[in-house]
């Protein structure tokens, strides 16, 4: 068989690999993966602003690399992604260190200390670009002007330092110091999410700092909040190893204080953060996606399901089956898992929809169903909303309507047929907030006037005892939201005004 040697041109290949689509935060997460794989328990990121001479340094206290190990780590594609790896290994392609770094900078320097010796290699795209042979020139040692940035490694027993310089994909024309500071904030929030399971617990496995400040973990599932619903953990066997799934429905915004609500919204907001959170080795790969699941068509992210978040853990032996990409940012469930994952997601989405619709209030009180003023009626043509005529406030009016009953019923029908459903939906979606209901924001005095009228009808007209009437009101919308006013009702109903 005839063949010819056809190696890629270094300059062209390096420039092409810069276009893989890494964000700065995503690229740094890839570097930290290597630190964790090297058994580091402390990683320090330093952002140094100096205009076009700005730099970013990542230092870990892991095992470090000797000369041969560093040489392999700096080569493109030295490792076969099909090779079996240790369970704690967060890499796969053997490309992350180079592709992630060079997506952000033109000069990558890596120095590592092991067994008391420091070894250093660097890629410099500007040097490669002007080389006459267009070869793969991996430089030894740091650039002369960068030697001082590697000094901290000398004081460590072992570890690795990654230095990004000539940050042309970050410090572009018009990019200023405040933009650099804003980038630091964005990176911090991203890393707090991606590595939150490493940063959490009484004895965290990882301490991560940015310019000396510790990164605090961001738990997407609010597992410590008493109003969060969590399912039992389910294990699903697959050909590439077992996966774990746990479903969560977060509390409605009304059950959170302002700080909790802002934090739980995540990087991209409540609606964008819904869906599956896919982890490999407890490192977050995908933060909020329905993974192409759905019946008939793939689910989209909708306001009604904004509280649904599902933890999904896969082993690193499942990368190929789940189609994990080189940036570790996408995943697609294999066929044999899709039906079960769809069923679990359907249940979680429905639970989230109910919590969202009821503003986090229970639909049952003390085992009793809450009587609601509106009911959804499904029919062949779709769904419509009807006023429940048995609701105490409605039935009270009908009982006393007398000759006006026909007009009252006609009025209620007009209200039913003119609900501004589309307007409510648009206002909710655009304002990212549910319209206020249930006497929210009203004074107790105004609520008491309405409550007293309904209570009087139940006792005087219906013949209920005051005790039973109060019990019924505690299970009647919207008075169930104001139990103090209900229990304060007197045994002798007030007369009509």
Structure overview:
The chain is an alpha+beta fold. It has 3 domains: 10-214, Histidine kinase-like ATPase, C-terminal domain (Heat Shock Protein 90); 229-357, no CATH class; 368-487, no CATH class. The protein is built from 15 helices and 18 strands. It has helices spanning 10-17, 24-37, 67-74, 96-102, 125-130, 177-194, 196-199, 258-264, 335-357, 392-401, 405-417, 421-431, 444-461, 466-473, 483-487, and strands at 42-48, 55-60, 107-114, 117-124, 139-140, 159-165, 207-210, 213-214, 229-230, 234-236, 243-249, 275-280, 283-289, 308-314, 364-365, 368-369, 374-379, 382-387. α2 (24-37) packs antiparallel against α4 and α10 crosses α13 (444-461). The longest helix has 23 residues, at 335-357. It is elongated and about 100 Å long.
Can you lay out the helices and strands and say which pair or pack?
Elements: H1 10-17, H2 24-37, E1 42-48, E2 55-60, H3 67-74, H4 96-102, E3 107-114, E4 117-124, H5 125-130, E5 139-140, E6 159-165, H6 177-194, H7 196-199, E7 207-210, E8 213-214, E9 229-230, E10 234-236, E11 243-249, H8 258-264, E12 275-280, E13 283-289, E14 308-314, H9 335-357, E15 364-365, E16 368-369, E17 374-379, E18 382-387, H10 392-401, H11 405-417, H12 421-431, H13 444-461, H14 466-473, H15 483-487
Parallel strand pairs: 1-7, 12-14
Antiparallel strand pairs: 1-2, 2-6, 3-4, 3-6, 4-5, 7-8, 9-11, 10-11, 11-14, 12-13, 15-16, 17-18
Helix pairs in contact: 2-4, 2-6, 10-13
């Amino acid at each position: 068989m005839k063949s010819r040697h056809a190696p890629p041109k270094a300059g062209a290949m390096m420039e092409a690999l810069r276009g893989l689509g890494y964000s700065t935060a995503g690229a740094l997460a890839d570097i930290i993966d290597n630190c964790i794989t090297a058994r580091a328990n402390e990683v320090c990121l330093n952002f140094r602003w100096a205009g076009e001479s700005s730099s970013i340094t990542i230092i870990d206290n892991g095992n470090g690399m000797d000369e041969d190990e560093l040489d392999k780590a700096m080569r493109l594609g030295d490792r076969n992604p099909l090779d079996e790896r240790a369970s704690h290994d967060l890499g796969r392609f053997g490309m992350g260190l180079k592709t992630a770094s060079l997506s952000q900078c033109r000069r990558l320097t890596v120095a590592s200390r092991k067994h008391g010796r420091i070894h250093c290699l660097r890629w410099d795209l500007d040097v490669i670009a002007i080389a006459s042979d267009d070869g793969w020139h991996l430089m030894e040692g740091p650039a002369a002007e960068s030697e001082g940035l590697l000094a901290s490694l000398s004081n460590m027993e072992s570890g690795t330092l990654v230095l990004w310089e000539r940050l042309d994909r970050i410090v572009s024309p018009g990019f200023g110091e405040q933009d650099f500071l804003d980038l630091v904030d964005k990176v911090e929030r991203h890393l707090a999410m991606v590595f939150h399971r490493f940063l959490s617990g009484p004895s965290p496995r990882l301490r991560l700092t940015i310019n000396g400040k510790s990164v605090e973990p961001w738990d997407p599932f609010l597992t410590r909040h008493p109003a969060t619903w969590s399912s039992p953990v389910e294990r699903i066997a697959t050909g590439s190893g077992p996966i774990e799934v746990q479903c969560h429905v977060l509390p409605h915004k009304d059950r959170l204080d302002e700080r909790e609500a802002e934090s739980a919204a995540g990087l991209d907001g409540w609606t964008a953060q819904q869906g599956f959170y896919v982890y490999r080795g407890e490192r977050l790969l995908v933060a909020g996606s329905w993974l192409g699941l759905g019946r008939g068509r793939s689910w989209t992210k909708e306001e009604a399901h904004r509280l649904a978040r599902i933890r999904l853990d896969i082993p690193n032996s499942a990368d190929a089956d789940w189609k994990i990409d080189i940036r570790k940012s996408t995943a697609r469930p294999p066929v044999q898992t899709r039906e079960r994952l769809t069923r679990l997601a359907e249940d979680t989405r429905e639970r989230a929809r109910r919590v969202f619709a009821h503003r986090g209030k229970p639909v049952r009180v003390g085992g009793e169903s809450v009587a609601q003023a509106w009911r959804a009626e499904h029919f062949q043509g779709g769904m419509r909303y009807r006023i429940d005529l048995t609701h105490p406030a409605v039935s009270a009016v009908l009982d006393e309507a007398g000759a006006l009953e026909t007009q009252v019923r006609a009025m209620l029908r007009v209200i039913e047929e003119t609900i501004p459903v589309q307007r409510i939906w648009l206002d909710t979606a655009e304002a990212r907030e549910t319209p206020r209901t249930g006497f929210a924001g009203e004074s107790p005095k105004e609520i008491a006037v309405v409550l007293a009228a309904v209570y009087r009808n139940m006792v005087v007209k219906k013949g209920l005892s005051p005790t039973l009437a109060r019990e019924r009101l505690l299970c009647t919308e919207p008075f169930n939201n104001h139990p103090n006013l209900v229990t304060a009702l007197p045994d002798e109903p007030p007369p009509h005004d």
